[in-house]
Amino acid sequence: MLRNTFMHYIHSEIIPHNKEELIYELENAKLDEDQDFEWDDACLVDLERIDLGEKTIPLFRPTLQVFFDELGIDASQLKVFLSEIWRNTYKKGDFQEVHDHTPLHLSGVVFLTDEQDGDGRFYFHHRHDSEISQQWRELNIFPGRCWIKAERGKVVLFPSFMLHGVSAHKTDNIRKTVSFNIIFDTRS
Questions:
Q1: Residues in contact with 31: Cβ distance below 8 Å, sequence separation at least 6, in sequence order
Q2: Fewer Cβ atoms within 10 Å of its own Cβ: the N or the C terminal residue of the chain?
């Protein structure tokens, strides 16, 4: 029987039941006073830190519930806190380099636009891809990248240590997303 030895590269693609409310709040959120991003020197994308105040966690709770249910985790035992949330606007030529969000716990992206041909695409990059021999690569059993198709209102959640990025945006379409990081405390 073939088994997955270590299951720690996971993600979930969720269309939350409060999709329309989520989109509305994210598109109309006021900007945070702090617009300094210390990590943006290796990417090309317009960033806006947003402030949803105390609405944020309740707004994401339905999505988080689905994610933790999929993992078989009783989320009522977790204290969940938003670390940061920001809007990304991609224009022609923009991209996001491969990166992770450690030491945070859970990261996510909400797509505010549908993917069109030539748009930048969100992907996960396998951290150990360079260790895989050419023969295994040619069999395409262990892909180095996992591409996610953007769909307005879709939320992607993943452990913050996973490498991810956005390919170069090659069209005149505007591509918008919201990214966020969450920390959780497992201690009662």
A1: 48, 49, 50, 51
A2: N
